[in-house]
Amino acid sequence: MAKITLDNLAHSYLPNPKSEDDFALKELNHDWVDGEAYALLGASGCGKSTLLNIISGLLHPSQGRILFNDVDVTDAPTAQRNIAQVFQFPVVYDTMTVRENLAFPLRNRGADPAYIAQRVSQIAAMIGMEAELDRKARGLTADSKQKISLGRGMVREDVNALLFDEPLTVIDPHMKWELRTQLKSLHHEFGHTMIYVTHDQTEALTFADKVVVMYDGRVVQIGTPQELFERPAHTFVGYFIGSPGMNLFDASVEGPRATIGGVSFDLDAAYRPKGGSVQIGVRPEFIRLGSDNGLPARITRVEDVGRHKIVRLDVQGNAVSAIAAEGAAIPTDTTRIAFDPRGVNVYADDWRVKAEGGLA
Q: For the ABC transporter domain, which residue ranges apply (predicted)?
């Protein structure tokens, strides 16, 4: 297991990058704690896989260093980093049985045969492939092959880190849930440092201790699922985390008062945003329907998704979402909405503004 340090790390696929826009991965300086589970979350092309491949040694960064437990491994080949990596699409030895595939990393390191047998049996149970242990991999389905890849990545207990690059893409939805749960159990049992790349917020939030949200080659926030939900550090985090995502309103803010479209209301703290573009961010859970004082609004439709209702509204020409409890009556005569002050965030040029007095 290892603490992973990203020191002034950046990468461009161009031979002579001239500006920040030429970098697929913009400068990063982070310490990732030994033994924690991280998810790299973001849209396609944001730099997740680039960062993972730099950590694994498959890609050499354009600048900066990567350290495992304070030892510089920037120039070390993958084999010397003592990591296990599972890729998006299955990588298996078709001529070997499932048992031989799972055992290969241990046999390659000269492990005791009894230990290999015990560990293979344990991993086969974890990925649900005990009945297929003596089948050749060649005839298995794509999702079964990916389970073998996952198992082979997890079979060693002595690795510095386990790296997963969207490993559940080819797995059916029910098995995805089971494997995520098993990965989390494995992490709790053995304490491996795990890094899991995904664009699926459900995978990230259910797997990780800390979610690393990436946007346009940057890490815009690292936090627990609760922190990302309640206090998104960037408007992208608010938009990307949550279903539906956070509502954004162009606003002016002065101290403890905000104004949207000519309607003013109190905030729960004082703010002094500095920047050209100021916005108020409110998650659908914190919008109140049928307020006497608030923003003019018109309900356009109601979607019942089983656990709750999503109320779609037109607010001054902008599409806004609110969430109501499953059993709640939706007032059809709603003409205004208000915000629960606890759920209001203030943003300047897309970055969250802290309240005066050092409040979060």
A: 4-241
